[in-house]
Design a protein that fits this description.
Radius of gyration: 10 Å
Number of helices: 3
CATH class: Mainly Alpha
Strand order of the largest sheet: 1-2
Order of helices and strands: HHHEE
């Protein structure tokens, strides 16, 4: 399962939760999220704790 699918299923998922589900490191998950953001495929709205992810299609 990839990051986009996880976010689509749960827009309020945290980076730590993504890391656990993918059995990956937090640095690699953050790197991939930053890559998706720079490609305008993903954005985060709201605060760190109460915000949500938006997948741009």
């Amino acid at each position: 399962m990839d990051i986009i699918k996880l976010i689509k299923n749960n827009p309020t998922i945290t980076v730590n939760e993504i890391t656990e589900k993918l059995n990956s490191t937090i640095d690699s998950v953050r790197h991939y999220i930053n890559k998706l953001k720079s490609q305008n495929l993903l954005k985060h709205e709201g605060s760190t704790k109460a915000g949500k992810w938006i997948v741009i299609e």
